[in-house]
C-alpha cells in the first residue's frame, strides 16, 4: 500500500562533444535563451505541472496528487498530446547530468547513454553532462542533431573517499559556471539506470523528486530517515511525507543548484561533527523542508530486485535492468 501522508511545517575541465566533434555550448547556440528566461521557465514549469495533472484515465489504485497538490506521475495519468501543445514553439533545452566515476560506474555508462539518447526527452534539445574522473571517449553512438555532450572532469578530487560529496561539489561548480545558462531544465541521475520508455515532457517541473521504489509501498513510520538529532539531515519520528530516491532529481537549474548547495552544506556539517550520513538522507531532508512540485512514481526508477506490484504498469526507468 502507498504510505500515508503526514503534514509538516514546513575544478575540472570541460570538453564539449557534439556529433563526435568538439563544440562550445552556450544557450544562444542551443536556441533556449530568449525563449525561456528564468521567469519564463518558471511559468512554463508551473503550466506543465498543471497539464501533467490532466490524466487520460482514472487510476483509483494509486496516489496521483499529493496533499500539497503536486502531481505524481504514473502511466495513464497525463496527456502527451496536451503536453506537446503546451510546449510547442518554446524551444526548450534540457540537461541530463550523470556522475560516473570509474571506481563505481562499472560499465554502466555505455548502457545508460545508449538508452538515454533514445528515450530521454525525445524531440527536444538535450545536453548530456558526463562527470568523470578519467577521460573516456563516448561510446560509438549516433545521437540526433538535437543532442550534444559535455565531459566534466573532477580534476584533483578523484581521490575523495565520498563519491557523492565529490560529485555534488563538481556539479555545483559547473552549475554556477555555465550549466544554468545553457539549459532550461536539468536532471541529475545515477549511472546505473537504463531508460526503457520515454522520459519526456511530462517530467518537467520546478522541482522534481523521485519516489523510492521500495519505500513508497511501506508505512512512513519505517522510512530510513536520519534519526540522530545531531545530524543536519535529521527528521523527527512521525514527520515526513515520502521517502525519496537519490537516483533522479530535477527541475529548474537554479532549483537544482539550491538542492545541491543545501545537501553539500549538510554533508559537510555532519563530517565536521564526525557523523556518517548519506546523500540520500540529506536529499530527503531537503525535500522535507522544500516540498517538490512534481513527483516521479516508482515507474521512473524501479529496482529489478523487487517483484512488480500491480500498481506499476510499465517500468520507464530501471535500476540494474539486466534482470528486468
From TrEMBL:
Note one Pfam family from the annotation. Glyco_transf_6
Q: Which residues cross the membrane?
A: none
What domain of life is recorded for the organism?
A: Eukaryota
Cofactor dependence is on: Mn(2+)
Keywords carried by this UniProt record: Glycoprotein, Glycosyltransferase, Membrane, Signal-anchor, Transferase, Transmembrane, Transmembrane helix
Catalytic machinery residues: 280
- Topology versus the membrane: Single-pass type II membrane protein
Under the heading Gene3D superfamilies, the entry gives: Spore Coat Polysaccharide Biosynthesis Protein SpsA, Chain A
Annotated residues that bind an alpha-L-fucosyl-(1->2)-beta-D-galactosyl derivative are located at: 212, 280, 303
InterPro entries the UniProt entry points to: Glyco_trans_6, Nucleotide-diphossugar_trans
Main location (coarse class): membrane
GO molecular function, a single term: hexosyltransferase activity
Gene Ontology BP terms: carbohydrate metabolic process
Localization per record: Membrane
GO annotation, cellular component aspect: Golgi apparatus; membrane; vesicle
- Family to which this protein belongs: Belongs to the glycosyltransferase 6 family.
Q: What is this protein called in UniProt?
A: Glycosyltransferase 6 domain-containing protein 1
Amino acid at each position: 500500500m502507498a504510505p500515508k501522508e503526514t503534514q509538516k511545517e514546513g575544478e575540472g575541465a570541460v570538453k564539449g562533444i557534439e556529433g563526435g566533434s568538439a563544440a562550445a555550448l552556450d544557450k544562444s547556440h542551443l536556441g533556449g535563451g530568449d525563449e525561456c528566461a528564468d521567469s519564463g521557465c518558471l511559468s512554463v514549469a508551473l503550466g506543465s505541472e498543471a497539464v501533467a495533472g490532466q490524466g487520460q484515465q482514472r487510476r483509483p489504485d494509486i496516489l496521483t496528487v499529493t496533499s500539497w497538490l503536486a502531481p505524481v506521475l504514473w502511466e495513464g495519468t497525463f496527456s502527451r498530446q496536451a503536453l506537446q501543445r503546451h510546449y510547442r514553439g518554446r524551444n526548450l533545452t534540457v540537461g541530463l547530468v550523470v556522475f560516473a566515476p570509474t571506481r563505481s560506474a562499472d560499465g554502466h555508462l555505455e548502457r545508460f547513454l545508449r538508452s538515454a539518447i533514445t528515450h530521454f526527452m525525445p524531440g527536444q534539445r538535450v545536453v548530456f553532462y558526463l562527470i568523470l574522473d578519467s577521460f573516456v571517449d563516448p561510446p560509438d553512438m549516433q545521437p540526433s542533431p538535437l543532442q550534444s555532450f559535455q565531459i566534466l572532469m573532477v580534476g584533483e578530487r578523484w581521490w575523495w573517499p565520498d563519491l557523492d560529496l565529490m560529485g555534488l561539489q563538481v556539479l555545483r561548480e559547473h552549475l554556477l559556471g555555465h550549466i544554468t545558462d545553457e539549459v532550461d531544465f536539468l536532471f541529475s541521475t545515477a549511472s546505473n539506470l537504463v531508460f526503457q520508455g520515454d522520459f519526456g515532457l511530462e517530467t518537467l517541473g520546478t522541482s522534481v523528486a523521485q519516489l523510492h521504489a521500495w519505500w513508497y509501498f511501506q508505512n512512513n513510520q519505517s522510512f530510513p530517515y536520519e534519526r540522530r538529532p545531531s545530524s543536519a539531515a535529521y527528521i523527527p519520528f512521525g514527520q515526513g511525507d515520502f521517502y525519496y530516491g537519490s537516483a533522479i532529481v530535477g527541475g529548474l537549474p537554479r532549483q537544482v543548484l539550491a538542492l545541491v548547495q543545501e545537501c553539500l552544506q549538510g554533508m559537510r556539517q555532519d563530517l565536521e561533527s564526525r557523523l556518517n550520513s548519506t546523500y540520500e538522507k540529506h536529499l530527503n531532508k531537503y525535500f522535507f523542508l522544500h516540498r517538490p512540485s512534481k513527483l516521479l512514481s516508482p515507474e521512473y526508477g524501479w529496482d529489478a530486485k523487487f517483484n512488480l506490484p500491480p500498481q506499476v504498469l510499465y517500468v520507464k526507468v530501471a535500476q540494474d535492468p539486466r534482470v528486468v
